[in-house]
Amino acid sequence: MKKALVTILATLTCLPAMAAEEVNIYSFRQPFLIQPILDDFTKQTGIKTNVVFAKKGLIERVKREGKHSRADLVLTSNFSALIQLEDENLTQAINSETVTKNIPANFRDPEGQWVALTKRVRNVYSAKDRVGKLDALTYEALADEQYRGKICTRSGKHPYNLGLVASMIAHHGEAKTKEWLEGVKKNLARKPQGNDRAQVKAVKEGLCDLAIGNSYYFGKMMEDEKQKAWAEAVYINFPNQQDRGSHINVSGVVLTKHAKNTENALKLIEFMTDNKAQNMYASMNMEYPVKPGVELSKLVASWGEFKEDSLPLSEISKYRPLALKLIDEVKFDL
Amino acid sequence: MQLSFSLSKWQSFAWLIGLSLSVPLMFLIFESLQPDSEVFAHLWDTVLWDYVRNTMLLIVGVCTLCALIALPLGWLTAYCEFPGRRFFEWSLMLPLAMPTYLIAYVYTDLLDYAGPVQIALREWFGWQSPDDYWFFDIRTLSGAIVMIALVLYPYLFLIFRTALREQSFKLVQASQLMGKSPSQSFFKVSLPLSRGAIVAGLALIAMESMADFATVHYFAVSTLTTAVYDTWLGYYSLTAAAKISGIMLLFLFLALTLERVSRPTQVVHERQSSVNSTTLYHLKGAQAWLASAFCWLILIAAFIVPTWVLADYAIDYFEQAWNDDFFLYAWQSLKIALWVSVVLIIMSMLVVFNQRVSSGKRVTLPGKLASTGYALPGTVLAIAVLIPLTLLDDKLNTWLEGSSFEPGLLFSGTIFALVFAYVVRFYAIAQGAVESSYQRISPSLDMASFSLGRNRFKTMLSIHLPLLRRGILTAALLVFIECMKELPAALLLRPFNYETLATHVFQYVSDEQLELASVSALFIVLVGLIPLYVVNRSMEQRS
């Protein structure tokens, strides 16, 4: 009976003979962002890449699939997802000298459970005509009374804002951060909505004077015919330059615990941390490369040098659940 | 071949369907019974009640608005003659093909503070800032209600109109002879007679709006769906998320039970349907124009404007937005939609037939069990489907260990997962449409058929099936189009490199780059038009 079933199943499914060389990826990042890099990888190595993209639930999927999972890599768009994957015990160490050489220690897990691939800054944009450039701006100042009704941001629960709030907790503690959040909420020009681009657009239209947003959106808007006008209406400011530096978030990658194509997966990770791919991230997606010495896109370079908050991401990430709790408590999104 | 099943066989079919479609839900309930680390209590103390209130308002708002749109439209196009009636009969169903997330994006782009409409107004009147004037804010609860109602009203329109067409027109004629005005016969005869259909339509709309995430999220309106996602993805607590889903299902059961309790015990069955054009009301003058204008208004708002904006983007961004793989994506969407439609028609027929021929208190239970998937937000349903399927895969792999064949993720890693998820999610639609059609077939027909020696199976095939034609077509159409549009489950459950039109659209929409998604979005709408056309053609035949 078992034998018969095996034969039937085998014929019925006729699983396509697995391509000899491939690597399977679950990606939180949109295919149009990563495909050029993957294509280049395939061209160079002959290794085929297979992708499933989703914004939600991929971690749960890897978890439920367990040891049968076909995913070799998970690409994430923020550091909390990296650390959640590690915490849920879904990763294995990335043992590669190339990676260790390419990526500075504060941008990979001490045990190699995850590696960051790109950096982005949580900037504050200011209206050129009404506010001007704000070189001395701090995140803390966003709660000041002078900005009452003048700030726009996306949902407080978005990973990028949660990361920022978590870093505030890490620096100032829970009580101070809650006070700060209440202040920022009072300063909002409208209920948090839209994505980071929409905030810059709102500044351009005069709905608010300051907007919180990631750096690469600014670069990408500059490249879009229609959105260029929005981006040109604002200055990009790097907060907290006089003290700890600006908050940064990263996109990254993990090697799954039950990866079947480990070698190929490692090859891809190495490729993604190396000059070519890092440069592609920088030039096409306006992100900051993680590998030192890789050239920035001209546009990004024109924003100037800045100081980064050096608190390790794993430290900040501890406060993420608390950050979400505070957002709920002050009803930031409501 | 002589096919005949005993009554207990029919019952076991129904129960088998009911139970297997509710397996994902069972796992979710099991999950919700696990202890969770205070997350639920924290939500209870802070935002949960705001969410519950918003959810209630959303459901009530959408249902009311849908009723206000769909009931007059259905009655007008079924019973009245006015300029453009034939055109509106089918064109008013077009918004079905428009995914809610697209219409929400399009209208926000248009009506936002930074959108062309308000910019034009500001330039026109010289206003400088938002303080200078008032404009209705689309990103609000009421905005969400309007958006969702605009794409969901066709459910009610379609089901209500089918009911009207199947109802005997004689009753309306009788009320006319007794001196009732058209509007009086609408309220006194047509509405009460179609109660079952109206409730079925509204129940679908209520469930769909409760499960909506894309629109409310985009409009920054926090509902219970938001809470489900927050707890699961933010607090990492699937357990608390499952608890909140439980609350949502409670709503659902409450609503369904209320409906059953309040349903009149007296049932009106039709003996024949006899609508023909000579018996229609002929609207004249202002009335006729008003009817036309109302139809145009809805059609323009719900379909023409969004399609036009998408087409406009598509022309401007064609080179960036075109993809040679579109036909493949369309085919993959179409394939799943066809599969699911066929499976669901068969399943819902079997379950509803059992309700008809069996008796007993629990006879409707299988159908209710199977319908629960519709009220769950898509991604939660996807996870709920994933849990039992991965377990099954694991068991299978363990069992086959050592044999030459290693199935891997045979159920959860293939297209099976997607089809299963859709069947679970959209069963309620199929049953709603088939059931409301079934209710109008008089049981005396069954008795006649039985006494003439036909068994149950033959009765179903040769007596019921032809009479149910419209109901079945309605069901197939609704399911098909829903499958084409469905997003969250498709995203999460698809195999590697499997792209449907909806998932392709989403990668751009999720980055708020509607322009780049415009061509594939138009494809979704176009492919949805095919079944609309086919079904409408065949509904109009022999009527």
Automatic annotation (TrEMBL), chain A:
Similarity field: Belongs to the bacterial solute-binding protein 1 family.
One Pfam family recorded for the sequence: SBP_bac_8
UniProt keyword Electron transport, yes or no: no
Organism: Pseudoalteromonas maricaloris
Xref: InterPro entries: Ferric-bd, SBP
GO molecular function, one term: metal ion binding
Name of the protein in question: Fe(3+) ABC transporter substrate-binding protein
Any one cellular-component term (Gene Ontology): outer membrane-bounded periplasmic space
PANTHER family hit by this protein: IRON-UTILIZATION PERIPLASMIC PROTEIN (PTHR30006:SF15), THIAMINE-BINDING PERIPLASMIC PROTEIN-RELATED (PTHR30006)
Signal peptide segment: 1-19
Keywords: Iron, Metal-binding, Signal
Source organism, top-level taxon: Bacteria
Amino-acid positions noted as binding Fe cation in the UniProt annotation, renumbered to this chain: Y216, Y217
